Amino acid sequence: MLRQKVLALYLANSALDSAVVGWSLFDGTGETRRMAGDEDLPPYPTGLHALRDGWRLIQASPLLPHARGEEFDLAYLKYEFLFEQIVETGE
Amino acid sequence: MNDLPLLSAETMASFAARGFLRFDAAVPEDLNRQFLEEMGDIGPPRPGQKMRRTYGEMLARAGVPQTPAGVPLTQAYPEGSALKRLLDLPLVAGAIRSLVGEDPVFDHHFLHVTFPPAYHEASGGENVSQHYHQDSTIDPRRAFDIQIMYYPHAVTREMGGTRFLPGSHLRKVSEAAIARYQNIRGQQHMVCEGGTLLFLHSGIWHGGGVNVSDRTRTMFKVRINPSRSQVRQFDVSTLKAQETQRPIFYLKGALPPSVEQILMTPEPWHENDTSRLELLNRVRLWRYLTGDPNYDADYWATRIENLADA
After folding, report:
1. What is the C-alpha to C-alpha distance for residues B171 and B177, in angstroms, rounded to an integer?
2. How far apart are CA A74 and CA B49, in angstroms?
3. Is B209 an 8 Å CB contact of chain A?
4. pLDDT tens, B57-89?
5. What is the ipTM, given to two decimal places?
6. Selected residue of B133, B138, B163, B184 to mutate for chain A interface (largest A Cβ count, 10 A)
7. Which residues, listed in sequence order, are joined to residue B114 by a DSSP beta bridge?
8. Residues facing B149 on adjacent strands
9. Chain A with chain B: Cβ pairs closer than 8 A
10. Engineering a disulfide at B161: which of B34, B155, B193, B306 sits with its beta carbon 3.0 to 4.6 angstroms away?
């Protein structure tokens, strides 16, 4: 049986080789149960390190122009990269 | 009110930059004991009982008044109660005055209890941490509310104290829309002695930690609104005028401690480009708090406000 693991890395800029500032892991195999606040050091120093470890990039945040009058408004983490691993669980 | 110990300019700048102030073991032990006695005991886990019911029974029993939103803070709690005594502590009253000004208003409060694994096992539910969120809803104001988190007993890391992200308060997000973020560099977990207080800007991203210890964890939160001006309410006698802008980028050594140094210190989670916007937004918050529309630090505002049309 195939199951998906999803890794979200939030990077310091739009380059995959920039530093990880935030991260989340959702494990569809059920082997681990990750949750908010469970780790204070990132799993990889950069997004490129995740690629080298076998994670496949499936989505990256687009770079959007800044609407006039809202140039200085900040909200969500800006550089989100979603990765996956497809894992054979043997079930 | 004038005798209150107001926050210094540097402490206020730290709040403006990072969105929190922490006062360790600031509440006397007798007051912590009174508070916990007023909250009452929590019964042992009961097999099959859902956590919602356990929580509801606890809230009904606890000695916390059902106070209407919007009343003056001075009327929120009965005289002699632990919470009234807590708010009247000079350190607490002085910090509230400094941050939200005169005549603060009660918004809401809540008794947060995080249960150990045995309760979740008995209920058949999962023992997980609370997602990151920003309280209330999208808040476009420059003005802000504060939330006081009161930890009446010691909190260990295993008890899963409040997790929060320093410096996140100026990001305008929609409550649990940030729940996708499990961990962010620089996040802090409240591990503290009994009687510790955490003052938060209402925009701070936070969530309750998972309790994997063998005892319940209790935290009381009260949200407070300003009703009058928040401008120059701290101890402005400690505010030093900035004669000239500091040198930037090309520096031959460390600059001396100052409000500017505090405001211009980034957080570990800052993105490269938006970090500069964070600094700019801190300058704007400092302008608001000091009533100085021309204030700047490290030239971030001055540069982009130069329209070259004089």
Report:
1. 12
2. 43
3. yes
4. 999 999 999 999 999 999 999 999 999 999 999
5. 0.98
6. B184
7. B217
8. B198, B221
9. 92
10. B155
